[in-house]
Amino acid sequence: MSFLFEKFLKANFGNSYLKECQGLFGVPDFVFCAKQKKDVSIISFELKLKNWKRAAKQAFRYKSFSHVSYVVLASRSANAALNNIEIFEKYNIGLAKFDNNSDFEILFKPESNLPYSENLHQKIVESLSMCSEKSKNIQTLVR
Amino acid sequence: MIKDCVIIRELPQGGQKSVYLAEHPQVGTVVIKRGAIKSFISLERIKREVELLSELKSEFYPQQYHFNIDIKTKEFEIVEDYIEGQVLRDAMLLFKTPKEIFTLFSSLVKGLSIIWDKNIVHRDLKPENIIIRPDGMPCIIDLGIARFLDLESLTKTISPMGPCTPIYAAPEQLSNNKNLIDPRTDFFGLGIIALELYLGVHPFDPVFVGNNYSIVENIMQNKYIVETSSVKPYDAITEIAKKTLQTQPYNRFRNYRMLNAFIANQI
Amino acid sequence: MIFSPVNIDADKLLALDGKLKQSGFLDPQLYLLNEAKGTLDTYPYFPGNLKPDFTTPDLDNSHIQLAQLCVDYQIMNGFHYLVIPARYYTDNPTTYFAQSTEYFVTPFCDYVRENKIQKKILLSVIVKTIMLTDEQKRNEVLNWITGHQDIEGVYLIFENNFSSKQIKDFDYLLNALKFIKILKDNQMEVHLGYNNTEALLFSIAMPDSVSIGSYENLRSFGIKRFQDMEKSPMRAPNARLYSTQLLQWVDYEYIQAMKVLMPDYEHYFDNSEFKPLMFKPEFKWHFAKPEPYKHYFYVFDKQIKSLPNIQENRIEELKLTIKNALKLFKEIETKVLLDDDSNGSHLPTWFNVINAFQNELTI
């Protein structure tokens, strides 16, 4: 799933991302950086085949350094999460499903929030120094 | 020593040992016991305990004059004082009330603590092994014997009443769990005796417990009575039973000091 | 105070103020015979000092000498109790208790008796999880402990192989409580080592003392602490802060989230002289910073000391504390999604354990 999703990210949003970045709060599968003029948006993704609850908890952690955090579930297990969509709404965590045909569907689009930890946010921004304006379509991920 | 004794008569003990009443010119009336050693306990350990026991000088034990083990023939030979009095088995009615029972036990524990302090366990406490002297004080006999006989031999011991089963044995003795045998094993025997004195019947007797098992099986299953149709339960007796008749030693009184403290409280 | 050899040089310990040592004892930490990590081999009773590459057969010849060295060192420090060491195995061999008696308990107690040393003796016991869950193994260890008449009590260490930071296993916790109770019924002193927050839970079985560990690896017993692990890289733990109201350590990143999302977030954490500094925006949270630990010592010590002395009252108060903690977690989780190592997921189990133990007491 990870391999396919990476391809999807590259194709749709660009190259400004890091995989499994250590030293933050939790280990996000993908952290994407989008720059619009002077504003930098950090978007994190947590991929899971089925354990949506665990994914949600991990995705919440990424809000320490991200503006937007998404749980991306394998399509076949997305229903369980959908039945608990209020949790994603409550904590403002994005929910999307992704299948083997690289079909990506957003089930809940979160708002952008300031990261909770200025410290960690700075850290990731520095790591993503190659963050460029060549990222595209990021606005489709944010409400 | 034995050569100087004049045998008076044989005392009915039978089974693994022969017991004679005899007269010694200086010492007076003595008891001579002879028998075979059938035990898995190492002979080294038996010798050590024999030495400790022969040094015992206490009114709670018959004075020993001669205690020999022949390692080659695997036989033991004991000469000790003859104790005047009644076997507890025949004097049970003297200790019916809780106060009488606890008073007796206070003395018994005092006497037993002498050997427990030396890390020796009696292993064969029963009404037949306790003599009540004319002054009411107990004397513990047959201390040495049990260690020479393993459980199989103990069960084959014939008494005047017929073949003996170890109906005062603790579960760890019945299951031959040697590392568990310590003074708490003796507490179990004391617990049975206390209840038997109070109730007038053996507390693990299936007739009163109300099942089809044997006494020994009831001991293994920890099924006993604290009252009968004619005897009501008495708190302190039930309590001492609870703290001695536990299958696991760690659920009994931990040492004789704790047992003593309990008994002292009742008197 | 319990002194930990793996954390301090033997000579340094000897030089410490007697006042600090006179009401405490040494945790001998002789868990592994032939591995002496860090400062362990500065201690004279460590077998490596008698003979290099010391192994079990060597114990046959040296156990008396080892015991004497161990007693002598403890006497020199003026500790309140003398502690008999315990050996660690991943799985105890069937001869474990017989060997422990022969190599440690007997020579130790004999030496103390022969020299008429008037100090109370505690026996170290590592309680492995299987001893709590398997009846036969539990009986074996309890009969062994209570059969030793020369000792005053035990220094009890419950081995913790759980992957979660708080213990959530109902059977483990309930059996641990029953274990402590049985030893207390035997009129033995019970001193618990390597405790974390569960010390509060264990306190309802009325042990004589519980420990407050200075570092995370002293709040949970795991043999890895005493082994030389050259291969595995040490991952720095996250900084966490203990809250007596929440009965939990909260990862500081969650505290940052609470700061943004909840105006009254500070109220969930205790006051101490260290709190103002830690809650300043510029405070660089890091596991090696001393303030969170000092704060923990101060607030947890207060929490333990404020436990009622009477068992019934202690139980009721702890139940109230847990109920309150659950309520507070509910408030926090309206805004912050905590993971299982920072939330109150251990608390419902603890509450059930307390109820089950209360039932045991009334039988």
Can you give a write-up of this model?
The complex is a heterotrimer of chains A (about 140), B (about 270) and C (about 375). Chain A is α/β, with parallel strands linked by helices and about 140 residues long. Chain A contains five helices and six strands. Chain A has a six-stranded mixed beta sheet with strand order 1-2-3-4-5-6, with helices on both faces. In chain A, strand 3 (about 40-50), helix 2 (about 50-60) and strand 4 (about 70-75) form a beta-alpha-beta unit. The two termini of chain A are about 25 Å apart. The model of chain A has no long low-confidence stretch (mean pLDDT about 90). Chain B has about 270 residues and is an alpha+beta fold. Helices cover about 35% and strands about 20% of the residues of chain B. Chain B contains nine helices and ten strands. Chain B has helices at about 45-55, 100-115, 150-155, 170-175, 185-200, 205-210, 215-220, 235-240, 255-265; strands at about 5-10, 15-25, 30-35, 65-70, 75-80, 85, 130, 140, 160, 160-165. In chain B, the strands form three sheets. Chain B has a five-stranded antiparallel beta sheet, with helices on one face. In chain B, strands 6-7-8 form a three-stranded antiparallel beta sheet. A two-stranded antiparallel sheet of chain B has the order 9-10. In chain B, strand 1 (about 5-10) and strand 2 (about 15-25) form a beta hairpin. The N and C termini of chain B lie far apart (about 45 Å). Chain C has helices spanning about 10-15, 20, 55-75, 95-115, 130-135, 135-145, 170-185, 200, 250-260, 275-280, 290-305, 310-330, 345-360, and strands spanning about 1-5, 25, 80-85, 120-125, 155-160, 190-195, 240-245, 250. The mean pLDDT of chain C is about 95. Chain C contains 13 helices and eight strands. Chain C is globular. Chain C has two domains: about 1-225, TIM Barrel, CATH 3.20.20; about 240-360, no CATH class. Chain C is α/β, with parallel strands linked by helices. Helices cover about 45% and strands about 10% of the residues of chain C. The interface between A and C is medium-sized, with 17 and 15 residues.
List the helices and strands and how they pair.
The complex is a heterotrimer of chains A (143), B (267) and C (363).
Chain A: H1 2-13, E1 17-19, E2 30-36, E3 39-48, H2 52-62, E4 68-74, H3 78-82, H4 85-91, E5 94-98, E6 104-108, H5 118-127
Parallel strand pairs in A: 3-4, 4-5
Antiparallel strand pairs in A: 1-2, 2-3, 5-6
Chain B: E1 6-11, E2 17-24, E3 28-36, H1 43-54, E4 64-70, E5 75-81, E6 86-87, H2 98-116, E7 130-132, E8 138-140, H3 151-156, E9 158-159, E10 162-163, H4 171-174, H5 183-199, H6 206-209, H7 215-221, H8 235-242, H9 256-266
Antiparallel strand pairs in B: 1-2, 2-3, 3-5, 4-5, 6-7, 7-8, 9-10
Helix pairs in contact in B: 2-5, 2-9, 5-8
Chain C: E1 2-3, H1 10-15, H2 18-21, E2 25-26, H3 56-77, E3 81-84, H4 96-114, E4 120-127, H5 129-133, H6 135-147, E5 153-158, H7 170-185, E6 189-193, H8 198-202, E7 240-243, E8 248-251, H9 252-261, H10 275-278, H11 291-305, H12 311-332, H13 347-362
Parallel strand pairs in C: 1-2, 3-4, 4-5, 5-6
Antiparallel strand pairs in C: 7-8
